[in-house]
Specification:
Elements: H1 2-10, E1 17-21, E2 27-28, E3 32-40, E4 49-57, E5 71-76, E6 85-90, E7 92-93
Parallel strand pairs: 2-7
Antiparallel strand pairs: 1-3, 3-4, 5-6
Length: about 90
């Protein structure tokens, strides 16, 4: 079934996508990171989207973003044969 799912996605049938948007970045360590996750495609009816608000409390001891330190917010879901994933950079400030 997974091969069939991959073939369908190659021609655009039932393609599933996930997207992170509206993230409150930059954000301070210890604050709450808010974002929206939107799922489109095969696990929903045609043209339907599922939008969920997300709130993640960040640890107070989280070090700020810097030249050698970067944080990502990653959203992913398991759709057989596809496993869509999306990420955005989150800037953490002191």
């Amino acid at each position: 079934m997974e091969i069939f799912d991959k073939l369908k996605s190659l021609v655009g049938i039932g393609t599933a996508t996930i997207e992170v948007s509206e993230a409150t970045t930059p954000v301070r360590a210890g604050a709450e990171l808010r974002a929206t996750v939107t799922l489109r495609g095969r696990v929903l009816a045609k043209g339907e989207t599922l939008t969920l608000p997300v709130a993640l409390p960040l640890p107070a001891e989280l070090e700020p973003s810097g030249e050698h330190r970067r944080y990502l917010l990653i959203a992913e879901t398991e759709v057989p044969g596809l496993n869509p994933k999306h990420s955005i950079v989150v800037e953490v400030v002191a």
